[in-house]
Amino acid sequence: MGVAGQQLRDFVPTKEFFIGIDSDGCVFDTMGIKHRRCFGPMFIEVFGLEAVAGPACEVWEFVNLRSRTRGANRFQALLRAFQLLREHPAVRALGATVPEATALAGWVARESRLGNATLKMEIDRGNEALAPVLAWSEAVNRAVECTVARVPPFPGVREALKAMSARADVVVVAQAPVATLVREWEEHDLRRYVRLLAGQELGSKADHLRLATGGKYLPEHVLMIGDALGDLQAARAGHALFYPIMPGREPAAWADWRDNMLDRFLAGTYAGPEQGRLIAEFEASLPEYPSWQNR
């Protein structure tokens, strides 16, 4: 984890409770526009997928918005998209070539901090096959900076953050670049409610939770709020509770958290059947396999 992880290791509690919170698709309604106008188009352009643009868009949106990999690190999502696109019936019917992702698969498997900085270091060590991946990731960042601006938080988020920050140490636990998090949270004057913005440069979401909370809070006093199964997995890895922001029902989820579940968490009554019911509903809403595999 190195110097980057030190920020999390040095994190000192100021309250009895800790709440980690995802950003894209959870606090801000940015996932759709980012993937449809930035990630997806750059996926097609950089990797020469114009001949299969329709299936490529379908695959990208399934991987990143409508499936169990929603909210995954961009490089893990890219690897999954290549795999699914190669299997897509329309691509097979055309006999189109999808780039191999062997180098990407190897790097994703062995690197714990999946970001542009570590990718550059890997290329500098001679893994030139990853150069297009870096070009894609940098193109995505430029597109996001130019395209995604002034997207407000979901209704109810600001009020929920105010209530949370009064009783808990709130930390953003995300896989967007830190620079993007700073811009988005400051743009809407929300940074005042969180103690730290942890992005991809500081490791995985599980790393964020483990380093920021391990040995510092009672396990039942740590909770993660997220809109993707990766957030749930990070919570479980960090022995934290989890509250889902249901995709497509974000305002209602935030209202229920602010008006009901936050008090239950603080009172120690959220864990158990209530959390189990919400998690089961959340998991059922995100399929593992795309519909075209059954066509």
Short description:
The chain has 295 residues and is an alpha/beta fold. The chain is built from 14 helices and 5 strands.
Structural write-up:
- The chain is of the alpha/beta class and about 300 residues long.
- The protein has two domains: about 1-30 and about 155-285, Rossmann fold, CATH 3.40.50; about 30-145.
- The protein has helices at about 1-10, 30-45, 55-65, 75-85, 90-95, 100-110, 115-125, 130-145, 155-165, 180-185, 205-215, 230-235, 250-265, 275-285, and strands at about 15-20, 170-175, 195-200, 220-225, 240-245.
- Strands 3-2-1-4-5 form a five-stranded parallel sheet, sandwiched between helices.
- Helix 1 crosses helix 11, helix 2 (about 30-45) runs antiparallel to helix 8 (about 130-145) and helix 3 (about 55-65) packs across helix 4.
- The mean pLDDT is about 95.
Topology at a glance:
Elements lengths: L1 H8 L7 E5 L9 H16 L6 H13 L8 H14 L1 H6 L7 H9 L5 H9 L6 H17 L9 H11 E6 L4 H10 L8 E3 L6 H9 L8 E5 L2 H9 L3 E4 L5 H18 L5 H12 L11
Parallel strand pairs: 1-2, 1-4, 2-3, 4-5
Characteristic terms for this protein:
about 300 residues, alpha/beta, Rossmann fold, 2 domains, 5-stranded parallel sheet, 5 strands
